[in-house]
Design goal:
Blueprint lengths: L32 H9 L7 E11 L3 E5 L5 H18 L4 E3 L8 E7 L5 E2 L2 E2 L16 E6 L3 E6 L2 H19 L7 E11 L5 E5 L7 H6 L4 E5 L1 E4 L5 E4 L4 H7 L3 E6 L7 H6 L9 H7 L10 H15 L6 E5 L10 H4 L3 H16 L7 E6 L7 H7 L5 E4 L16 H8 L4 E3 L16 H13 L4 E5 L8 H12 L6 H12 L4 H19 L5 H6 L2 H5 L17 H21 L2 H26 L8 H32 L13 H22 L12 E6 L9 E7 L8 E11 L4 E11 L8 E6 L3 E3 L7 E6 L7 E9 L13 E8 L2
Parallel strand pairs: 2-3, 2-4, 4-8, 10-11, 10-19, 11-14, 14-15, 15-16, 16-17, 17-18, 18-19
Antiparallel strand pairs: 1-9, 5-6, 7-8, 7-9, 12-13, 20-28, 21-27, 22-26, 22-28, 23-24, 23-25, 23-27
Helix pairs in contact: 1-3, 2-3, 8-10, 10-11, 13-14, 15-16, 16-19, 16-20, 19-20, 20-21, 21-22
Length: 822
Amino acid sequence: MKTSCCLASVVIFVVQGILPVARLSAATPQVGREEAAEWIRWVVPLPRQIAIERKAVVPGDQVAITVASEASLLERSAAAELAGVFEKSTGHKTRIGAGRNAGATVEILIGTCGKDGRLAGRLVPGAGRLFTLASPEQAYRIVPLADRTLALVGTAPQGAYYAAKTLQQLLSAACSKPDNSTAVTIPLAEVTDWPDLAERGLWGGSANEDIEWLAERKMNLVESHIELSLGRDGRGVAVIPEGLLARAQRHAVKLVPIITHLEQLPSAVFARYPQLKAVGDEKAWRRVGDVTPVCFSQPKAQEILADWLTCLARYPEVTDVNVWLSENEVPCQCDRCKAVNPFVLQTRLALHAWEAAKRIKPSLRLRILLTQGSYRSNDKVLASVPPEVGITYYDGGRTYDSSRQPMIYPLLEKYAAEGRWLGCYPQLTASWRIVCPWSGPQFIKARMSEFAAKRLQCLCGYATPSNRFYEFNVTAAAEWSWNASGRSEREFSLAWAARQGLADPEKAADWAVTLGPVGWDVYGGRVPFIWVYSGVAGMLRQGKPPRLGAGIFTYFPTKEHFDHDLAACERAMGLAQGLQAPALIEETRVIRGLVQMLKGLYLMAEAVAPGKKISSDDRQRAAAALALVDQGSRDAHDGLLNWGAAVAPKLVPKSLGSTSRLADTLDCLERTAVEASDVAQGMGINDPGRPYRARRIGGWTTDDFKAGPSQKKTWEVTKFLGGPGQYRVMFHYDRGWYGARIKCVSLVSTPPDDAAQQAELSRDAHEGITGYQPKNTTYEVSLREYDPKRRYFVLVDLVGMPPNSPPEHSGCVGHATMKKVR
């Protein structure tokens, strides 16, 4: 049966222009419409053309895999992975050979064909057409042949590998409902497939660790930072982590080494060659970041970059290198540098280095990364590169963005339309810095559809700190960067839910398409990331109420839209609870909490706008709005912790004093509520939740340890207390080479006029460590009775930096917060 996919529930496609083929001579029962649809749901990305009319059910020991004797490493890898699926399903070891397997009932033939469409001497109908498709080296065909053979063919090893990947996924669908037999069910699929974007992948986060996971989704690019240094002879040395290239090569992944942003060179370069330090105002450099700009007119700068590219050219597996232009516009002010646009100068430097490296490997390709620093000069950079050089577009404010605005602006759109090679570095998440859950099919489909329509060649997404937090969105990017016009948002969500093994995939798909747009409303306005920089106190104290449809309220054009989104959250919560899926429940809780916070902040700002006389009714409305902020922040905070534990338990910080991005997000949510509370208090508005919010009670700096590493700190906390109860004291690392060890925390009280007469009320004497890897940094003390006539202090025994530390190993700065336990 071949049916056109015109309804959401139908996912079987007509194969156009393909010759009819004879079916396997073995017993091949027909496949019903629903069974075929269930199989195809397991295939991600969805093939462009696929039909499943029959299946073969054969003993597990009657399946053999054939590859040519001269098969490439990638073809052999495809065969081995496919054999592993059969063996896992049946318990039988699957034969892999280079010749015909006469004793097998079903033979899987994997390899590449010539333009005549022949694979191992056998004609594969429709295979010759693969050479005419976009990215022909990745195009593939799966087709049953007349002699009990299922052919998996590509024009190149990548295509053969992707054919095997598709069959693996179809087999996984068949194996998802085991019948306790040693037989295997093989869907006799007929497939023709090829990608929209030639390169699809990631950089940063867990990309290096996830090569196999990405390859399962037909993603074929990882851009990776490498070790850049100087050798003893002063020449540049570039080293790729051991084993990384081999893993990539076995899974059809192109590993592209990165020469990092050119103003962020290793400090050893300046120590060895001080003449490379740019001429200019160091105070101005510090204002744009902690960087040491380079004088790119110096011949030594050109030599070092050429050394690095030449080192990389010597790796047989390296085909491309990416040079990142400076992120900051901090040009050298020497006479030679001032005469040239700084980003054109850097581009010329990269081209010079590339020409040197091509003497080692003439086929080496170069790509150059645009940045927010180069944005105003991008037209000049594009004009200065030859056609064979690739351009990748990144901008910290424009591509690390989850708004509904198009990403590829006219200059680059025209560049790609002219046939030039263009890639883009979008975030695939709520934020590049803040970790928040978001299964956003509408968001990802919009991004990938734009890239495909504007003829981009490359997706290099950013999903930090780990794909474990963002598997839905990264998988969706794999789906639509391969086939942008394939599945709808709901159809993809249904496929994702089936692969996840959720009890009711239809209900899970409804959940994703219901909650996805709400997340887009929130994260499209850079919430909660924007709070890190601007805070909400300034917004609440500004001269006029915030404007709906702008800033953090960009996608909330009316007050009614808050309630619209909250109603959608309630529908999504009902679906998630019906599925009994903790990750979905907690994601809904976080997004609902963020909408509540936004609504509360807007209503509070509206009630207490500066310049107006605040009435009793205004105060009541502001208090109610603050309660909404409080409830939303607690829901988002607790939901975020629970969500992290559900999707990536190993990545959830055991101490909230951690420097992880998830810990930063938790802190950001709490600080937002604290700032709102502080504004309310300043306007005489009661906040009963005030003691339960974490507030800074004190800190330490490097100077505190001049007399020795062991110090005692005393911080008054009278104003932070809210009656009897348990109080949590948390220690946080800020910066420096050293963290700090906490030996003991005590709560004491004193008479109002004599702080020396201390009465200890409780203590927590375990040892904690705050630093890059904090441990046990939360302490609890109790207050049984509260006397408003006494003063209260927290005493800390602290061990920090030794006073004789060398300059390069110095610094110990941190702080402590405190809140009442609810």
